[in-house]
Amino acid sequence: MKEDLSQVESYWLQQLQCNNEQVLALLMKQYYTDLYNYAARLSPDESMIKDCIQEVFISLWQRRDSATAILSIRYYLLRAVKNKVLKALYYNNRKASPVHLQAAYNFSYEFSIEKLIIDQQVSEEKAAKLKRTLSQLSKRQQEVIYLKFYQHLDHEQIAELMGISRQSVYNLLHETIQKLRNLWHTEFVAR
Amino acid sequence: MKDFRLYDITDFVLDEDFIRWVYEKREEDEAFWDQWLQQHPGKHLVIAEARRILESLKTTQTAVPAPVVTHEVERLMQTIREQHEQPASITRTYKIGWYAAAVILVLLAVAGFSYKMFLPGASISPYSYAALTADRKLVEKKNNSDMPMHLTLPDGSSIELAPDSRIGYARNFDSAGTRDIYLSGEAFFSVTRMPNRPFRVFSNDIVTKVLGTSFNIRSFESDTTIQVIVRTGKVSVYTMADGSPATRTAANQPGEVILASNQRLVYAKAAQKFQKVLLDNPVMIVPAAADRNMVYEDAPLEKVFSTIAKAYDISIVYDNELLKHCTVTADLRNETFYRKLELVCRAIGATYEVIDGQVVVQASGCN
């Protein structure tokens, strides 16, 4: 249902194939914030993230002759950024100390209290409570709600991106919302 | 058809239709859920809780500042141009195999050729109508008459196309994920609300994204400015070019300006600057009947201002603390927006100014 590929996007992909650099710049500009925010949840290393995003666009450019095979630009870019960041984390960690990839892969739902207060006019106290609640979710749980409610990917895309089955995405989402409700209850009602 | 009666809170939170209602506030959804709640009054608490969860998950995005993005885009462009010049020698931040290098060499020849085809002559802006619509798959409408031309789009949105203006949209406009229109000239748009499929108008250097609304865009290639006027609803406007410092004014998000009802946005092409101004004669966005209630006797100022602000969807800024004892006795029916303001201000000995699309009231207080 959340089909990303609009006519203008397929037009852009065609233009990429025709070596139109402007379109590559446009795509980066369009998706930069979303990609950066996603990557920032995987690693706090800002300059590494920026390099990874650069590399993703460079390889998109290098493979532009097959660009029209891309079905959803957003999903393609998110997946490419995730792979690059995880790879970078893996190599960096191998150099420093032998840490497992999964441990290095630390998804966190960064939550800007200030923005929440401005956007939704909630009190500082309430925003802090929300932040505390979200930080109590597991990394997987944080990732799944991020992909669903912020990036608006569909369940199939989430499944592929997280490397789990669709049924697991469904279960994970249910379990996460359930947990969120319980946490909320303790934060807001029990006090 | 889903049976929402069987849904628990979690089911609602995860349901696409429910999410759409909470996040996008479409009119048809509002109507559906209002009615559904009336039929199932026992579900009010469940719905309220599900809504609250969704709302608290909604906005967590911090935009990457425009200068950072601009810098990164420039960096990318530089790398790519270096690749064109010396395809085999770029190894600074990434590795490139011989195979890829070879591919690029071959493609270079193609690049030089097709670039000319798409951008005929250096004088044309990369975002001109011609450049944006170089693809020939668009449905195009041109108004050669000297009367406005009425058009209906496949999604039901309507357009009044001014003389000497043209629009283009994709053949599969109705099935694509976003509804994109290319405009050269001037047009008034009444957009059918479909928050899942944003409506975007590309007009030279700027893009106007609609959050459900009616609005006017004037963007002739010969003009020095591009103007967007919003009658109802909200639109967001951003530039095609990278966010230069000038575009970062007045907006909470860099490079993007949110424009509300009765506001006009002027974009100066040369300076790449946005300026927000109020319309000369703002119209009410609420039903005209609201006007009939605008008779006040010793009414608190706060109430009067908030009624006016809501009726026209225009912010009125004033010192609430200082003016909290002020009351107004006035008959504001059948007056224009500015006349209403004038009458209220006179009643409390205040003056007002319009700054950046907002009304700012200055006064010394009341006893």
Automatic annotation (TrEMBL), chain A:
Domain RNA polymerase sigma factor 70 region 4 type per the UniProt entry, residue ranges: 129-180
Keyword Transcription regulation: yes
SUPFAM superfamilies per the UniProt record, alphabetical: Sigma2 domain of RNA polymerase sigma factors, Sigma3 and sigma4 domains of RNA polymerase sigma factors
Residues annotated as signal peptide: none
GO molecular function: DNA binding; sigma factor activity
Key words of the record: Sigma factor, Transcription, Transcription regulation
GO BP terms, alphabetized: DNA-templated transcription initiation
RNA polymerase sigma-70 region domain ranges (all copies): 27-91
Similarity field: Belongs to the sigma-70 factor family. ECF subfamily.
UniProt protein name: RNA polymerase sigma factor, sigma-70 family
Organism: Chitinophaga rupis
From TrEMBL, chain B:
Signal sequence extent: none
Domain Protein FecR C-terminal: 294-360
Pfam families given in the database record: FecR (PF04773), FecR_C (PF16344)
Domain FecR protein: 150-235
UniProt-listed Gene3D superfamilies: 2.60.120.1440, 3.55.50.30
One annotated GO molecular function: sigma factor antagonist activity
Keyword tRNA-binding set for record: no
Membrane-crossing residue ranges in chain numbering: 96-115
Keywords: Membrane, Transmembrane, Transmembrane helix
InterPro entries assigned to the protein according to its UniProt record, in alphabetical order: FecR (IPR006860), FecR_C (IPR032508), Ferrdict_sens_TM (IPR012373)
Name of protein: FecR family protein
Organism of provenance: Chitinophaga rupis
Lineage, top ranks: Bacteria, Pseudomonadati, Bacteroidota, Chitinophagia, Chitinophagales
